[in-house]
Amino acid sequence: MTHKDFSYLIGVDGGGTGCRVAVATLDGRILAEAKGARANVSTDCAEAITNIMRATHEAVHKAGLSIADIDRAVAHLGLAGYTGPEISRLIKAALPFAKSVVSEDTHTTIVGAIEQEDGYVIALGTGTIIARQKAGQQTFIGGWCYQVSDQASGAWLGHGALEQTLLVVDGIVKASPLSHRILEKFDGAAGIVQFSLKAQPRDFATIAPDVIETASAGDAVGTWLMKRGADYVDSALRALAHQPGDILCLSGGVGPHYAPYLSSDHTQNLTPPRGRAVDGAIALAVQAATQP
């Protein structure tokens, strides 16, 4: 197919908590968007594809376009849990689009946040994205998965809040407004344990707003967790050779809340995101539609 044979563009931001799909014209003008359920392709690939396609159909309908033309659409999907060519082939085979490009959600997040400019992106939501873009090359560290990584993320904060609350119950850590809130929310220590036995990263992440809110009010436990997360982010930026004055973009539901806790060396050129990961996906879909 040539560019003129394509019908429209699809951009997908797929995360562990949910996905967002945008439909755009071939020049990248977004016509409509829709939100869907979780879309981590390592956790459950079949479920992720189902959720993405449901949101895609909704977005196409909202845009006033025809689902019948979806087999002539070009899509770029930035997906949490993407692990390489093997899973990419599996995902592409399950999609109805004329052309599909699949990447890590880190790629779409960077392009959405700083476009083609040199800079650093810390995107913290359920999981963790830490990246540098320099001379068109992207470098990522961390964010391997919640079980062994994803420090400073929403899931990490939520898990830490539960851990610290149980230490309060054991008399090791002093009680605080956060620990009181957690104990009330889960109806005591037993409730925390039962929740944790079944919880996925997205479930732990639902507790992160409690940590952020209480820390901003001076809560000792919440502040300690935010400082620990910030220490990790500072270390990651040093590992990526961030220099004072380099662009740093904090994004995601959790990311911007770390700004007060980070080293001043890293926040001298704090820049708001130019766009979202789904905007980055559309920009990359524009490229895909013009390439052979």
UniProtKB/TrEMBL annotation:
Limits of the ATPase BadF/BadG/BcrA/BcrD type domain: 10-254
InterPro entries, A to Z = ATPase_BadF, ATPase_NBD, Euk-type_GlcNAc_Kinase
Gene3D superfamilies listed in its UniProt record: 3.30.420.40
Protein name, please?
ATPase BadF/BadG/BcrA/BcrD type domain-containing protein
Give the source species: marine sediment metagenome
